[in-house]
Design a protein that fits this description.
The protein is an alpha/beta fold. The chain is built from 34 helices and 17 strands. Helix 29 crosses helix 30. The N and C termini lie far apart (82 Å).
């Protein structure tokens, strides 16, 4: 059905009220009306739906639109019905309909009232629907979110790979496949699977000029998110988290801090999900905290920011999710919090999966790390990933790297040392051990192989452990080394790495953020350096109290707590209890003198306290804390408690340390008595009394591993803090 450009523009104006097409919409529509297959790659907000909505309304017959989500279908149908007097113009056919509703849909189609039918691929498998649609005049098939077809896509769905088979069962008609994100590899996979390799390819620019890309190290992430939202008060935003549990926690934390936020994830009942989504779309809620279950096809043009609490598992996912900001060409700020520990979690998800799936997953993760840690223009990197050339100067400082360029330096010597260490150690170690070997630090595993690695042990001790972690990550990204998923991250040399060892060449390393740091940042929440004067006064007070009570100063408050006090000036018991590592118990026991000092200091120096950054925390809904305390009262073993809660012994001990360091008193004496003799307990306790920071690291250095195990030292330290400090 060929149609003139003038007639097409008239239909656009008459039906939708638009004076002109966006981008390549007109060519895409004309291609489809000419009976040709098409593959459309168009960024979020580019107007993909128009490419099949207009031709379906002006063609003879019924257009079938295959879509992955019920919520997405409903939104599209509701939207198209607003342009027509007839409700029957568009329908959905999926599992949400009753038998009566299905009969109404089929009757409207038979009468020719319906021009667009939205279906999930699962519906096209049902024999009753296939038989019915065979009898209907179909104009074309549109496959929305076509990246779901590809195993290399960020949202792969197995049932999507059967779509061509379903189309053939009904009767072959022109096919248009549409997606907002597809690398050249994904595009080819989609076309091959749909058997439309000869289709016309339409690729719009992936560049969204109005979006600002920003990757930040994961420090005090909840505080940073609240600070950011308060700086953009009243604006709409989405926060993405990897897990449902984290969605609930962040949403509740925002709520108790006066931010109008709601959660959205697949674990909520359908009614709640719909209510929360509608509240966000209708501006009754400012922020939606969600898993990736939220957002596909959401029609809200004025989302001003998208925050990723966790790094996404692929760049396609990142582009799709961030693309929901600024669809009206207004402001769109994209903040992603990045820690390499999050990457390790994603890698763990791959273990146990088929090898082919692991390879694909590993490649997608590697590309995400590379994007997060690159020193080049984020926009250039992202567009290159999607096969589009872009000059960095055109970014106009609309990414963090262009606004604040990271320095680079020649790293050939360091890479050579690392690869030599991997080779000499027979590719035995994970990243964690390798970094320790480079700086000459031991643990039990390293000690077992010490005779083999003597020549390279400590060969990089002139640099710190985080430096070597950065070298490992950057060589991993360049595929000079690789990780074995099945052996949980053992580092191996690639062929490229072996070539580098034989003939080293220039390798530029980036000086970037310390992505591993998790302690409190020494930067105040107002953006300047923390109050050094107050910090030193607090240290002196801590020392004075510690001396009076014959306690190590860090038993009173750890240094990270003093830093937080110097940043936030707490002067009430509630505020003090919110300081990192304090808690209500410790605040009541030691907080008063510190609050008096801080209040006096604030008045004398006329300081405006950052009250807006005193973040309230939510009550931990997890039963872990209560269960742990009750189990310790019953004198259960570490192994039994851990097993009951599905934790490792290491994870349980960490939880116990957190409970005690927040001021709760526990009694682990029964454990210590089973582990070490009385005189040995006294020896370790004496060490902690004399230690300024009673740090575990110092204890490990002071006592050889054959004297006390790591668990014995940690349990001793917990008991010491609990008995003496709490």
């Amino acid at each position: 059905m060929s149609i003139s450009s003038a007639t097409l523009h008239k239909h656009l104006k008459d039906i939708f009220g638009f004076n002109s097409f966006k981008g390549r919409q007109e060519q895409i529509i004309q291609n489809l009306l000419d009976g040709k297959d098409g593959m459309v790659i168009m960024p979020t907000g580019g107007g993909k739906s128009m490419c099949y909505q207009l031709p379906s309304l002006i063609s003879d017959g019924l257009a079938i639109i295959i879509s992955p989500l019920i919520a997405l279908m409903k939104n599209q149908v509701d939207a198209i019905r607003t342009f027509s007097e007839q409700k029957s113009i568009a329908h959905v056919l999926n599992s949400s309909l009753s038998k009566t509703q299905i009969n109404i849909v089929m009757e409207d189609i038979k009468l020719g009232h319906t021009k667009m039918l939205y279906v999930a691929p699962e519906s096209l498998i049902k024999e009753e629907y296939v038989s019915f649609l065979k009898s209907i005049n179909i104009s074309f098939f549109a496959i929305d979110e076509a990246h779901c077809i590809s195993e290399w896509g960020h949202d792969f769905r197995p049932e999507y790979r059967r779509i061509r088979e379903m189309i053939d069962n009904i009767g072959r008609k022109p096919i248009i496949a549409l997606t907002a994100t597809a690398t050249p590899k994904v595009r080819h996979d989609i076309q091959k699977n749909l058997k439309i390799l000869d289709s016309t390819l339409f690729v719009d620019s992936f560049n969204r000029k109005n979006l600002f890309y920003d990757i930040r190290p994961k420090h005090n992430v909840e505080k940073e998110i609240i600070k950011f939202i308060r700086e953009h008060s009243g604006k709409s935003g989405v926060i993405y988290c990897l897990s449902r549990k984290k969605v609930e926690e962040i949403a509740e934390t925002l709520q108790v801090n006066g931010i109008n936020a709601l959660p959205y994830h697949a674990g909520l009942d359908a009614k709640t999900r719909i209510l929360n989504q509608d509240a966000f779309i209708m501006d009754d809620c400012d922020v939606i905290v969600a898993t990736i279950a939220f957002g596909m096809g959401i029609d809200k043009p004025d989302i001003r920011f998208v925050i990723h609490h966790d790094i996404p598992k692929s760049l396609e996912g990142y582009y799709q999710e961030t693309g929901r900001a600024g669809r009206d060409d207004g402001e769109g700020i994209l903040v992603t919090f990045y820690s390499y520990k999050d990457i390790e979690k994603l890698e763990k998800f791959l273990s146990g999966k088929p090898v082919s799936e692991q390879e694909i997953g590993r490649q997608l993760i590697m590309e995400t790390i590379s994007f997060a840690e690159t020193a080049m223009c984020r926009r250039k990197y992202l567009l290159h990933y999607f096969g589009e050339e872009f000059e960095s100067e055109d970014c106009n400082t609309m990414c963090d790297n262009c606004r604040n360029p990271k320095p680079t330096f020649e790293g050939k010597e360091f890479v050579s040392k690392l690869l030599k260490a991997i080779e000499v150690s027979n590719e035995t170690f994970k990243a964690k051990e390798l970094a320790k070997i480079m700086i000459g630090e031991r643990n039990s595993l390293i000690n077992q192989h010490l005779s083999t690695i003597t020549e390279i042990f400590g060969s990089g001790k002139d640099k710190g452990i985080e430096f070597w972690h950065a070298v490992i990550r950057q060589t991993y990204v360049k595929e000079i080394i690789t990780k074995e998923i099945e052996t949980y991250g053992t580092i191996k040399l690639t062929d490229q790495g072996r070539e580098f060892l034989k003939k080293p060449y220039s390798f530029m390393l980036t000086e970037d953020h310390d992505y591993e740091k998790t302690s409190s940042s020494p930067i105040s929440q107002k953006g300047g350096v923390m109050d050094d004067v107050l910090f030193n006064m607090l240290k002196q007070l801590r020392k004075k109290i510690a001396k009076k009570q014959s306690l190590p100063p860090a038993i009173i408050f750890q240094e990270s707590s003093l830093i937080d006090m110097a940043n936030n000036y707490p002067i009430t018991m509630e505020e003090m209890s919110q300081i990192q590592g304090v808690g209500i118990g410790k605040a009541k026991k030691f907080g008063s003198e510190f609050m008096i000092l801080i209040e006096k200091y604030v008045k004398e120096n006329n300081i405006e306290r950052p009250l807006d950054m005193m973040i309230k925390t939510i009550v931990n809904k997890s039963s872990n804390k209560v269960y742990i305390i009750q189990s310790l009262d019953k004198k259960l073993s570490i192994e039994d408690i851990a097993r009951a809660k599905g934790l490792t012994s290491e994870e349980l001990i960490k939880e116990i340390e957190t409970i005690v360091e927040s001021g709760t008193k526990l009694d682990l004496q029964y454990m210590l008595d089973d582990m070490i003799d009385d005189y040995e307990q006294e020896e370790v306790f004496d060490f902690f009394k004399e230690s300024e920071n009673f740090s575990l690291e110092e204890a490990r250095e002071a006592f050889a591993e054959d004297e006390y195990s790591d668990e014995e030292l940690r349990i001793s330290r917990i008991q010491f803090i609990s008995k003496v400090g709490n």
